[in-house]
Amino acid sequence: MSTEEKKGKVSWFIFPAVAVIVFILGLLASSIMERRVESRMIYMPKEKMDQFEPRNEKWGKQYPNQYDTFMKTAETSFKSKHNISSRDDMLEKNPNLVILWAGYGFSKDYNAPRGHSYAIKDIRETLRTGAPKSEKDGPMPATCWACKSTDVSRYMNEKGITEFYQGKWAEKGHEVINPIGCNDCHDGDTMALRISRPALLEGFESMGLDLSKATHQDKRTLVCAQCHVEYYFKDQYLVFPWSKGTKAENMEEYFDEVEFADWVHPLSKAKMIKAQHPGYELWKEGIHAQRGVSCADCHMPYVSKGGVKFTDHQINSPLAKINRSCQNCHRQSEAELIRSVASNQDKVYQLKMSAEKILVKAHLEAKAAWDAGATEAEMAPVLDYIRHAQWRWDYATASHGAAFHAPQEVLRILGTSIEKGSEARRLLTGVLVSKGIKEVDYPDVSTKEKAQKYLGMDIEAMKKAKKEFLETLVPEWEKKAKEREATYGDKKPMTKK
Amino acid sequence: MSTEEKKGKVSWFIFPAVAVIVFILGLLASSIMERRVESRMIYMPKEKMDQFEPRNEKWGKQYPNQYDTFMKTAETSFKSKHNISSRDDMLEKNPNLVILWAGYGFSKDYNAPRGHSYAIKDIRETLRTGAPKSEKDGPMPATCWACKSTDVSRYMNEKGITEFYQGKWAEKGHEVINPIGCNDCHDGDTMALRISRPALLEGFESMGLDLSKATHQDKRTLVCAQCHVEYYFKDQYLVFPWSKGTKAENMEEYFDEVEFADWVHPLSKAKMIKAQHPGYELWKEGIHAQRGVSCADCHMPYVSKGGVKFTDHQINSPLAKINRSCQNCHRQSEAELIRSVASNQDKVYQLKMSAEKILVKAHLEAKAAWDAGATEAEMAPVLDYIRHAQWRWDYATASHGAAFHAPQEVLRILGTSIEKGSEARRLLTGVLVSKGIKEVDYPDVSTKEKAQKYLGMDIEAMKKAKKEFLETLVPEWEKKAKEREATYGDKKPMTKK
Questions:
Q1: CA nearest A289 in B: which residue?
Q2: Which of A36, A46, B121, B243 has the fewest CB atoms within 10 Å distance of its CB?
């Protein structure tokens, strides 16, 4: 065979081989293009969103991955190591709480938390919000809606901030319909994170800090801090009591100075402060905050799907997704990481229970002292200790994940709660013994039912009234809201003010 | 120029170039050889050491780098963030301690710790060991020497373990001369780490654990755990009270069960337990232990010198050498790491001071109750609470670096100390008020001098006696010891039993 002939033969092999390679390259290019289209679909929406659009499903059409994962906040399968599931009846699990919160809404009904998508359902259903029969009825102010819905910034934009906080809770029932969602944290134009709640901006202002300089990473915490914080109502206006700082002692001093009380305890007559859920404040005191780890880093780690990486909007316990949250930084096994977290939780639980038991006895003994004829002067220091001890206990344990976020700070605060609660009891012992009472006859408050009965609470009546409310007023709210939303069509619900 | 000529010219350039390169390579090889010799000098001693050779300087001849750094344990320049230096008078800095330890040696004299090389000097000089005039004199048993010297295992090998623990402290004064050093942790044959103290082996045995399976990394902690632990004297025999576990509650239960008391408090009459320095036990509860970090990893990080890397034997605070200790794993700046540690120390300090103040008052109020005619039955529960509260406070704070090693555990224990101490005070208030005492007339114990005077302690007399002891008996010990050591020559002091 001549060289020419050989070359000819080789060409016959090369031609189909090249054809196959080119075909495969084509497939690859096509796949890359497809992924690009997919990611453009994700990151470049067909049209910009109005930032006051309250309907999450509208945003979901443009951002299906984020929306789909957000919808998973409805899942309630995760169980903590301490065997607490979403919606567990915490008063039943821990009847101390009924006595500690006697005279306040939380003694009626307090469940373990569940996902953002239940925000509206749960606030309507809890006994705490009562059973209003009209707009002017019920125990709670409109302010209670402030953290529950994407309708909040829509309404505030339309009618004003102070206007939103005005009136009874029932007055805004037809306005606040959509659960927490997209517009609470995102700018409709750019999808950038945005602070939608004035209370956070005002809280930072009160500390002399300017949020306009916040970085994107800062905002991955700050959007959560719009709600997961300590707050109180100053004539119904929502205020974060931060002007003296965000530690337990700072806020205690603030509340003492403005002489604020959430309620007066019916047993001890102490002027109480209810800590809400100072999650942001406690996170600040912990090592993750101090190392620059944001809320979203652990609660919303990225997921990969097809050609895109996006933030998991199923905001839940990082322990439910350790491989994507903790293990981004920590090389330990899942079992070891859980053991480590649980070890801190166990320690906090121990001091928490000690503080609670002391406080329950303090309230009961204070009642016994009043009954025995104790004077205001005798009781004044006792009531101060009870107020401060319970505030600290509540601050240390009310927020989600406190034992994880800042175990040392939580243990420190609980130590001071035990100290102050014990001092109240010591003074009470003096008062009681001086009145001839050596042994207090404690009532049996060892179950939720017994404790509520002791306090004279008629839970069955409350449940009945609540049922009526849910069957009558709520459907009216829903109807009115649907009529309003129908006027939006697919267009923007309103223009930016 | 012909090609041949050109080649000739090139050769003239190449020849000197090659010569220079070869010369440099030669230097390099020589340097490498030198380093090798250096490292052989370090790691392969001229002769094996007898593991009972107590004189550190003999070992130092073979291991100059380790010895030189060990000699630096004499340095006392490091100051903690809380402004405590080696040898600071802790009773002066914190007069609470005088009351808490009233009736016990530590109320006489208690200084901040300093390096291993001061072990003999400091135990002779402290007022706690008294001023014996003869072998049969003084407040302390021979057991007190057990952690102070390389002569301990020498003596134990020669005469027996029980024999070592027998007699008065003064009886062994001439036997125990060399400060803590090489043979305490090293096997003379192999330089491997070895456990020289029977108490540690017995302590592990009591927990059903076998130290023969300990790894080298385990031993980098265990050699320290020979001394930096909680212990007590069971008829002068040194025992680690670990059979129920090493947590504060475990050992408390142990001591209660064997009805052990270190002393009876002269004010409250409570049967007290003195926590020594449960450093190992607390380290076990912390994150560094749980991640496999040994004592030596942080307190004895490696250093490079010449051709060798060796373990820094200047055993001191890792905060004095953050770049070589913490920063092996942690990427944060030195300032940030210190801030982080100090933040835990501050929290622990707060609860520690609370627990102390409660306990000081409890002792004083208990005395007032006894003085007012309180009965044994009335006081029994009070004294139990005081015993347990003070044990926990002491356990949590007595060991070096507790707030670093296990801040959560320390805060937890202090929380329980506050709880129990407060409960003692509450019961005391009941007893006192029932006897007509509404206000206790507390003595002024706000300084070391005032507190010691209140307790009737004549510190000047103690100091005078101590001076005499140091000027008379100690020189005799030194003389006897020198005579004994002179018989060793440069040979092994004795053969292995």
A1: B340
A2: A46
Would you list the DSSP string of A173-219? TTT--SBS-HHHHB-TTT--B----HHHHHHHHHTT--GGG--HHHH
The burial class, CB within 10 Å (0-12 / 13-18 / 19+), for B388 is buried
Residue A419 contacts B where some CB pair is shorter than 8 Å: yes
- Rounded Cα distance between B199 and B119, Å, is 19
Residue A174 near residue A477 (C-beta atoms within 8 A) = yes
Q: Are strands B232-234 and B237-239 parallel, antiparallel or unpaired?
A: antiparallel
Is residue B331 within 8 angstroms of chain A, CB to CB?
Answer: no
The answer for A 201-260 residues in CB contact with B (under 8 A) is: none
CA dihedral A182, A188, A192, A195 (to 10 degrees): -70
* Apex B211 CA angle, B207 and B217, nearest 5: 120
Band of pLDDT at residue B85, cut at 50, 70 and 90:
confident
Whether the CB-CB separation of B385 and B420 falls below 8 Å is answered with: yes
Report CB contact under 8 Å: A354, B416.
yes
Contact B429 A430 (CB under 8 A): yes
Give the side-chain half-sphere CA count within 13 A for B488.
18
SS3 B331: coil
Smallest CA–CA distance, residue B340 to chain A, in Å, is 8
- Model pLDDT, residue A6: 57
Write out residues in chain A with pLDDT < 70, as ranges.
Answer: 1-12, 31-46, 490-497
Write the CA distances from B214 to A134, B51, B201, B203, B285, integer angstroms.
Answer: 74, 20, 11, 14, 19
Measured over the CA atoms of residue A368, residue A374, residue A378 and residue A384, the dihedral's sign is: positive
Gyration radius of chain A's alpha carbons: 28
State how far the Cα of B59 lies from the Cα of B178, in Å rounded to an integer.
13
For residue B51, pLDDT beyond 60: yes
Tell me which chain B residues have a C-beta less than 8 angstroms from the C-beta of A291. 332
**Mutate which of A249, A419, A437, A440 to test chain B, going by most B C-beta atoms within 10 A?**
A419
**Collapsing DSSP states into helix, strand and coil, what is residue B94?**
coil
Structure tokens at A199: 């209370």
Distance of CA B202 to the CA centre of its chain: 19
| DSSP-derived secondary structure letter, B79 | B
Instruction: Judge: A414–B409 Cβ closer than 8 Å, yes or no.
Output: no
Tell me the pTM. 0.91
Task: Give A321's DSSP letter.
Answer: S
